[in-house]
Design brief:
Largest sheet: none
Structural class: mainly alpha
Radius of gyration: 22 Å
Distance between the termini: 44 Å
Number of strands: 0
């Protein structure tokens, strides 16, 4: 709020009414409103599923399937697979974070660690999937094929993913399943199972959440978990639980639109491109540029689209391979998007796990790891064929 008031105050090139209009426009863009509707549906689905016992049943099923020392690594692998299949980190987080948080409560494990593990795995697919918005934006702005970008990108981030998998195995040693697992009520697992299956097949996340919400109502009413008014109350409480997240997201959108309107992002781009020397410098400039714009816009797809044109110009001027350039854009933007506490992914994860986003930050090993991997790929000119 302080930053928003300051931004409106210093925008002296416009009348006050126009400044407020610009701020409101940023808070209500098409992408912003879509995100807010997802928050509303996610809150309603998560709480109605919790009230009918869906989360408890899913946790019990997970505990019965996975060895206790594989819970953390299993969460990471599940998040990687689902996000790679559906191409969206937000959809993966909506599906898995409630389960991860409940597993943390049941096993006595760290809920921030469990949540962060899912967020990290969610960015694996966000970065690599053929149907991810970031992949589409990066390849289209650089003029290369998705399959070529995938090969380069996989070479950069796969070692990071393998390292984090072993880290999860090591940290998961202290997570032990309870000895007496309650009987599994399989019918209550159906909403989450259907949500995961539909997400894997690429259905729109709002459609997935709507169908999941209807299923929780049907199953919950028929098995006596609540009556229809209890279902409405559960949905209402879930939406109210997302209210702070919704307000923060709208304010961030308004603030960033003011910054864009008064030339803040253009200023950053101009300063970043004024001192480039050589191919490594060009690659670092592209990476830093998309990272800074992502910090300003809190949206990795928007960041790639914003700097894609200038990145193409820099790449062509200094001989950077378009496939490497697309990979740098995607990986650096996903790294930053995965660690900013005001990004949609962390806000969503924090809202669903009842945490402060800052609590999750220290455990976001995978976003940090892909950032390091991307930097090393520039320093050591890897992969050689594309460098």
């Amino acid at each position: 709020m302080i930053a928003s008031i300051y931004a409106i105050t210093i925008s002296k090139g416009f009348p006050l009414t126009n400044r407020i209009t610009i701020y409101s426009r940023g808070a209500s863009t098409e992408n912003m409103m879509l995100m807010l509707w997802i928050f509303v549906l996610a809150g309603a689905f998560a709480n109605s599923a919790k009230q009918m016992g869906c989360i408890d049943a899913t946790v019990n099923l997970t505990l019965s399937i996975l060895p206790s020392n594989m819970l953390l690594a299993g969460l990471f692998l599940a998040a990687c697979f689902i996000s790679l299949s559906i191409g969206t980190s937000v959809g993966t987080i909506v599906a898995l974070v409630p389960i991860a948080a409940a597993l943390g409560e049941t096993t006595g494990g760290s809920i921030p660690l469990m949540t962060a593990t899912v967020v990290g795995g969610a960015f694996f697919g966000d970065n690599l999937s053929f149907i991810s918005d970031t992949t589409v934006a990066a390849t289209s702005t650089q003029g290369c094929r998705m399959s070529d970008k995938f090969r380069v990108n996989l070479f950069i981030v796969l070692p990071a993913a393998i390292v984090i998998l072993f880290v999860c195995l090591y940290l998961g040693r202290g997570v032990h399943s309870p000895s007496n697992i309650p009987d599994i009520e399989y019918v209550k697992v159906i909403p989450y199972f259907i949500v995961l299956v539909m997400a894997i097949f690429g259905m729109n996340v709002m459609g997935v959440l709507t169908i999941g919400l209807i299923l929780t109502g049907i199953i919950g009413i028929f098995n006596g978990s609540y009556d229809i008014f209890g279902w409405f109350t559960a949905m209402n409480d879930g939406v109210l639980g997302m209210s702070e997240l919704i307000i923060i997201t709208m304010m961030a959108g308004g603030l960033l639109e003011i910054i864009r309107e008064i030339g803040g992002i253009d200023y950053i781009i101009q300063k970043m491109t004024s001192h480039i020397h050589g191919k490594r410098g060009a690659e670092f400039s592209i990476g830093i540029l998309v990272a800074l714009v992502d910090l300003c816009t809190a949206n990795n797809t928007v960041a790639i689209i914003t700097v894609g044109g200038i990145a193409k110009q820099i790449g062509d001027k200094y001989g950077v391979d378009s496939r490497k350039c697309a990979s740098i854009l995607d990986t650096f933007s996903c790294c930053v998007q995965g660690i900013i506490p005001y990004g949609a992914q962390l806000l969503m994860a924090a809202g669903l796990s009842k945490l402060n986003p800052i609590e999750i930050l220290p455990y976001l090993y995978y976003p940090y790891a892909i950032g390091i991997a991307a930097i090393l790929s520039i320093i050591f000119r890897l992969p050689k064929r594309y460098s």
